[in-house]
Write a structure and sequence with these properties.
With 166 residues, this protein is mainly alpha-helical. It is 60% helix and 11% strand.
Amino acid sequence: PKPIDIESLEARLLTAARVTTLHKRLADQNRELEVLSERLREEGRRDPLTNVGNRLRFREDSRAVLDAHHRYGHDYSFVLGDIDHFKQYNDTYGHLEGDENLKRVALLLDEETRASDNVYRFGGEEFLIVLSEQGVGSAHEAAERLRKAIFAQQIVHEGNPGYGVV
């Protein structure tokens, strides 16, 4: 209303500025929470030791694989493997050394598979690999190639009879 009450106008502008600042701060906090929430979601689906997918990630990813198979007829194969006599390895060399070798094997599996394949830590020393677009024959070849790549690392394991390595 006229005449303008300067004090009232200043008070209203000050209040509006405070509300606008609070809305901006709230929006910034919401964005930060969304980023942190997504990071937690990702970390909850990754094995903390080996940094490959965990069983929860596998369960979620396998739905997509099965859907693609049913809808489009895409082939896929699962390769499940473990480190032979791993308990003896830990008993002989210690759990810290065992953890280091689990990391090495997981990294090698991840590096030696295609970008469209997924590696998961399925159990203590068990790894599961989902090979997309591969039937049994090519999956067998891929599994053998991965086994040979791990063997080539020559990780000493005296408790693995006949081989002496992981």
